[in-house]
Amino acid sequence: MANNRATQNLPVIITLIVALMLTMMPMSDAISAFRPDWVALIVIFWTMSVPRSYSVGAAWFAGILVDVTQGTLLGQHALALCAIAYITVKFHLLMRVFPLLQLTATIFALLALYQFLLFWINGVTGVHAASVSYWGPVIIGTLIWPFLFMFLTGVRYRVQLGG
Amino acid sequence: MVVSRNHNINPARIPGLGLRAIALLLLSMVLMFLDDRDNHLDTVRNAISAAVYPMRVIVDLPARLWAGASEISESRDELQRDNARLKDEILLTAARLQRLSALHAENERLRALLDARRQVPDEVRVVEIMSVDANPFRHNVVLDIGSNDGVYDGQAIVDAAGVIGQVMKAGPLTANAILISDPGHALLVEVNRNGLRTVAYGTGEFGRLNLPGLPNNADIQPGDLLVTSGLSGAFPSGYPVAVVDTVTRIPQEAFADVTATPAAALDQVREVMLIWSSRQTDEIAAEDTDDEVDDDG
Prior knowledge:
The structure holds two protein chains of two kinds. Chain A is mostly helical.
C-alpha cells in the first residue's frame, strides 16, 4: 500500500519539480517575457485529474515554492494558484468530458485569471510594469496545453493514477 | 454497499473544499501583508530557499557547462588576439595607476592637513550571478554567496563599468539582489560635472533609468555622468551609475523629463563585485579616532 502510494505521488512531485526548474531557468530577456506558467499548467492538470489527492492545499504549497524561487511577495503566487485550483476542482468533472479544443479554451480563461490575480496584487503593492508582457505567458501557455495534456495523460495512465 | 454509497454522495463534491480554499486564501493574504510591511518572514523564506538550493544549482548547470565549453574551444587565434588586447589594456591601466598613486598620496597629505578622517578603501569580492529571476517585471538576481560569507542586506553591487544594484535579502547560502533597473528601485545619485543631487529610478528596462525629480532649469545635459552620491548610506560614493541620455524640457511642466543609460550592462554580466563599504569599517575605526573628534568639538 505504501509503495503504491509512493508510485502515485512520484509523477506529481517530479512534474512539479521540473515545472519549477523551467520557471527558474535563466533565459534572455526577450524570451523570458513569453515563458509559460509551467507551474500553473501542472497544477491545473493534476487538480483536474486527481482532485481528491491534490486540490487547493497542494496548489498553495506549489505557489509558496514559486514565490520563494521568484522572489515575489510570499503568498502572491500561492493565492493565485489556490484560486485557479479551486475553480478547476469545482468543475473537474465537466472539464474531463470537454473535447480538447474546448478544454484548451477553458485553460486560456484560467491562465488569464491567474495572470490577472498576479497583476492585481502587483498593482496593490506598487509594482508597475508594461501590461503587454502579461499576455505572453497566457497565450504561450494555452498553445502548449494540448501537448502537455496529452503527455501528462500518457504519464498518468502509465502509472495507473486513479481519480 | 459500495454502489449505494456512490449513489448517495455526489461524485463532483469534494468535502470541505470551499472552506479549505477560503482558509488558504486568507492565509496567503496574511502572508503577503506581513511580507510587504516588514521583513518578518525572512527566516521562513530563507529556510525554503535553502531547500530549493539544489534545484537552483541544477538549473544553472547548462549555462555553466556552456561557459566552460566555450572557454575550452576558443581558438588559438582568438586567444592571441585577447592576449594582445589585454596586454595593451594593462599598459594603459598601469599608466593611469601611476598618476592615481601620486594623486592618492597627495589626497592623503591634504586630508592629514585638514585633520579629516582617513578614507578606508572599500573591500571588494568577486561573486557570480547564479540565476536571474524569471519574473519579467522584477529585475532580481541571485548571488552565489550569502550571509555565511558576510553578505548583508543593502550591500552595494558593482561591476567594472558601474553600479549594478544592491543586496535585497541575504540568505545563508545565496543572496537575492535587486538591479538598479528594477521598477521598484531608487538610487541617490549626483551629476559628476557639478554635484547636482537627484534620484535615479529603475524603469523595468535594462537600458534606461528615469530621473523625474529635476526642475526645468536644472543644470543637466545629455552626456553627463551620474555617480553615486553616498548619501543613502548603502552605496559608497563616487561609483558611476549612468550617463544622461535625453533631457526634455516642457515649458508648462514643473519637472524636466530626463532619462539615462546605465553604465553597466545590466543584462549581460555574470561576474559582479560586492562592496563592503568603507563606512562599515569606518565605524570601527571611528572608535579609535573618537578623541580627535572630541577635540574638534
